[in-house]
């Protein structure tokens, strides 16, 4: 892969993604296998005037060994430096870039209760960081890096270099950076998402009703004062950034206790390095009261038992079934891509930015206005080529939002 093309991609992540500013601090979370691209990002950030670039390295193999062999006391007591590390950079006003690659078997063979133990306690000590992300108190972006393992998962062939280059080409196209017309390029696309968001906000639906031949029949009430967002967004200080590259969604928050019916997943969910597939959830007054999965039910149980809020929804997102990612007809085994190929929902915490006049409200105040609170936030895909969504306005009018998988607004 030509270095100049990777530099251009890194530049997009830093400018359109986290909207990096001269003199700022960049925190990059990345796998050790991604070191070459992480180096390019680092150089590009310093070229843009960074005061500091901090790398938070991940190694799945080492993380797995810890889960397999460390004592329960170790897993339940995160090291004090972990929250200190994140608080240092949140307080400093750093921007956060997370580089990801698919690895759906990373934690295969680890007992589910071990994963749950570590995750539960780590989420507690990093609650302030998740609040900063969810509330756009910091700018952040999640983006992809091609790896041989991911290329193998997708069936690409050749040498490691050849198949990784093929995956890079796919990433550049789906991120709308290369191989697209000016009308489909990233800036024009973000502008269209902004218009769709404005339409949804103007209609101010009271509820949305999802139906699909696969069995989905779900009604989601929207809280008073909800806001739809899509494409780029503003941090709490008014600076624009794009939290996901690629992105195809417009999203909002449901009334946490206003979800009723059943919904079926349509793509695999990779959770804590394990696959959950062909699952369904039944909701009553917002809460999951029944569920099952053909693959990974134990891990679905772990997710739902994170805390009380994990059994409620915190996000609903609309994605046209005919988006480029969907039309690539590929399961990417990575939520960043799979969620942008499909309408999706999220179990767990809601984004406070999806509610008018929410800045400064406490968790209890946000919940009183309808937003779910949780230590987790996990997207799962429900979109389908035959999905229909009908919106009902506050005066009872019904408007088709989606027909046969295609958004009408």
From TrEMBL:
Write out the transmembrane intervals. none
- Write down the Gene3D superfamilies for this protein, in alphabetical order: Thermophilic metalloprotease (M29)
Which cofactors are reported in the record for this sequence? Answer: Mg(2+); Zn(2+); Co(2+)
Superkingdom of the organism of origin: Bacteria
Q: Which UniProt keywords apply?
A: Aminopeptidase, Hydrolase, Metal-binding, Metalloprotease, Protease
Q: Which GO terms describe its molecular function?
A: aminopeptidase activity
Q: Which InterPro entries match?
A: M29_Exopeptidase, M29_N-terminal, Peptidase_M29
Q: Family per UniProt? A: Belongs to the peptidase M29 family.
Name used for this protein in its record: Aminopeptidase
Q: Which organism is it from?
A: Veillonella magna
């Amino acid at each position: 892969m030509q270095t100049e093309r990777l530099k251009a991609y890194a530049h997009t992540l830093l400018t359109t993604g986290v909207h990096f500013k001269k003199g700022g601090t960049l925190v990059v979370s990345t796998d050790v296998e991604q070191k070459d691209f992480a180096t390019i990002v680092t150089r590009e950030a310093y070229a843009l005037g960074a005061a500091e670039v901090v790398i938070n390295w991940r190694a799945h193999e080492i993380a797995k060994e810890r889960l397999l062999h460390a004592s329960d006391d170790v897993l339940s007591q995160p090291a004090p430096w972990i929250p200190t590390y994140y608080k240092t950079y949140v307080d400093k006003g750093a921007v956060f870039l997370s580089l990801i690659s698919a690895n759906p078997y990373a934690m295969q063979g680890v007992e589910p209760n071990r994963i749950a133990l570590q995750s539960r306690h780590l989420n507690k000590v990093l609650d302030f960081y998740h609040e900063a992300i969810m509330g756009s108190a910091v700018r952040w972006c999640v983006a992809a890096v091609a790896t041989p393992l991911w290329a193998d998962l997708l069936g690409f062939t050749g040498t490691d270099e050849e198949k990784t280059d093929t995956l890079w080409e796919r990433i550049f196209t789906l991120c709308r950076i290369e191989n697209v017309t000016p009308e489909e390029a990233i800036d024009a696309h973000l502008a269209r998402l902004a218009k769709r968001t404005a339409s949804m906000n103007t209609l101010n639906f009271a509820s949305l009703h999802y139906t699909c031949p696969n069995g989905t029949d779900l009604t989601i009430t929207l809280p008073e004062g909800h806001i739809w967002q899509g494409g780029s967004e503003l941090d709490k200080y008014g600076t624009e950034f794009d939290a996901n590259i690629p992105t195809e969604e417009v999203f909002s928050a449901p009334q946490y206790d206003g979800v009723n019916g059943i919904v079926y997943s349509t793509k695999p969910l990779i959770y804590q390095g394990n696959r959950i597939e062909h699952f369904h959830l039944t909701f009553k007054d917002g809460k999951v009261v029944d569920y099952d999965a053909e693959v990974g039910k134990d891990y679905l149980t772990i997710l739902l038992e994170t805390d009380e809020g994990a059994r409620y929804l915190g996000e609903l997102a609309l994605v046209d079934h005919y988006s480029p990612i969907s039309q690539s007809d590929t399961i990417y085994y990575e939520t960043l891509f799979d969620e942008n190929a499909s309408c999706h929902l999220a179990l767990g915490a809601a984004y406070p930015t999806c509610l008018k006049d929410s800045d400064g409200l406490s968790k209890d105040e946000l919940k009183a206005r309808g937003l779910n609170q949780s230590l987790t936030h996990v997207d799962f895909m429900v979109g389908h080529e035959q999905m229909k969504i009908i919106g009902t306005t506050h005066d009872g009018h019904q408007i088709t939002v989606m027909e046969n998988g295609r958004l009408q607004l």
